[in-house]
């Protein structure tokens, strides 16, 4: 059984609070918060203030994904009572171990993400310290991209490493997840599936979340 983390990047921002409450009530496990700075990735999304605008709504916990340069400067801005994970990119952190410890010092789970072209071996020395490993299955920066199927090899490799060395990190994928490939994603060993347009692009958000949960083995 895998968990569902709908990305608010694909939500209707004029109805953000309403839509996040709908998908949370329908069974979403997390709300994926995609933060982009226009430098690390070629797009700008939103910052901590938009995320915190959801604090008074009945939403699932926050799964924060920082696609930004120098994330250590901003970690504290994304810490709330709802923050479950803060994930940074391996490619953006020259002192990754320090950054992971910085995140955990706030009492939230520390995640590390890798882009499609970054091999898993680049994470070798951080896996025992991370709470979450996020495998990008599209090149980060924009929603609605096509799923890069070859990235599933990374998920299977992470499963092998976790079993061999007794690590406790969860495995998340982000990018191109749809109902049509959800079962394949779960079969590879994914624990958390991020879905943006595949959830928020549906006419009936509640029904789409239920459909995803069924594909993920949650119902």
Automatic annotation (TrEMBL):
Cofactors demanded by this protein: a divalent metal cation; Mn(2+); Fe(2+); Co(2+)
Organism: Hornefia porci
Cofactor annotation remark: Binds 1 divalent metal cation per subunit.
Keyword entries, A-Z: Carbohydrate metabolism, Cobalt, Isomerase, Manganese, Metal-binding, Zinc
Pfam families given in the database record: Ribul_P_3_epim
Leading EC class: isomerase
Single GO BP term: pentose-phosphate shunt
Protein name from the UniProt record: Ribulose-phosphate 3-epimerase
Residues bound to a divalent metal cation: 32, 34, 65, 174
Pathway where this protein functions: Carbohydrate degradation
Claim: Endoplasmic reticulum is one of the keywords in the record: no
Domain of life of the source: Bacteria
HAMAP family: RPE
Entry's family note: Belongs to the ribulose-phosphate 3-epimerase family.
Record has Cell inner membrane as a keyword: no
Catalytic activity: D-ribulose 5-phosphate = D-xylulose 5-phosphate
């Amino acid at each position: 059984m895998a968990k569902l983390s709908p990305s608010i990047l694909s939500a209707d921002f004029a109805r953000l609070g309403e839509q996040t409450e709908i998908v949370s009530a329908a069974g979403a496990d997390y709300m994926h918060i995609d933060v982009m700075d226009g430098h690390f990735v070629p797009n700008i999304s939103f910052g901590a203030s938009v995320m915190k605008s959801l604090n008074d709504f009945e939403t699932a916990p926050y799964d924060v994904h920082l696609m930004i340069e120098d994330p250590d400067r901003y970690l504290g801005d994304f810490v709330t009572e709802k923050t479950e994970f803060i994930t940074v990119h391996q490619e953006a952190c020259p002192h990754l171990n320090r950054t992971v410890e910085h995140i955990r010092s706030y009492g939230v789970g520390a995640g590390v993400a890798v882009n499609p072209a970054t091999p898993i071996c680049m994470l070798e020395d951080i896996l025992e310290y991370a709470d979450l490993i996020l495998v990008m299955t599209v090149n980060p920066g924009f929603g609605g991209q096509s799923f890069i199927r070859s990235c599933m090899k990374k998920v299977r490799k992470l499963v092998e490493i976790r079993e061999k060395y007794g690590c406790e990190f969860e495995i998340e994928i982000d990018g191109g997840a749809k109902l049509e490939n959800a079962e394949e994603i779960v079969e590879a060993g994914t624990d958390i599936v991020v879905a943006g347009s595949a959830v928020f692009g549906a006419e009936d958000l509640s029904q789409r979340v239920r459909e995803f949960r069924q594909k993920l083995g949650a119902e």
